[in-house]
Amino acid sequence: MLTELLDLSLIVTELLKLSLMLTELLKLSLILTELLKLSLMLTELLKLSLILTELLQLSLIDTELLKLSLIDTELLKLSLILTELLKLSLLLTELHKLSLILTQLLTLPLMLT
Fold it and tell me: Where do the H-state alpha helices sit in 1-113?
């Protein structure tokens, strides 16, 4: 009977050891679960970082478009100035024509005499 009790005691001891090992495995499993959660969070952060990078690239493109728009505005201003200069050139041409007519009119009395 004593032998049987000792055998049972040994079995109980082994079961307790296994139970402790199982407890440690469960702790490790919990740690692994937390690590997996952190890994998922890191993945989400990386996705957000990629989105932020894309937004920054779009912002740079937008900045370049604004620069081009400013250049376009300046070109339009220059075009308006050029138009005004062409108008002045036309006026100057007309003045030259009038000057020629006036010269001819002034020489007419000389030709008559």
Answer: 2-112
For residue 51, with 0-12 CB atoms within 10 Å meaning exposed, 13-18 middle and 19 or more buried, which class applies?
exposed
- In the DSSP assignment, the letter for residue 94 is H
36 vs 42: CA distance, rounded Å: 10
Looking up tokens 């082994």 gives 14
> Per residue in 13-62, pLDDT tens?
999 999 999 999 999 999 999 999 999 999 999 999 999 999 999 999 99
CA 79 to chain CA mean position, Å: 32
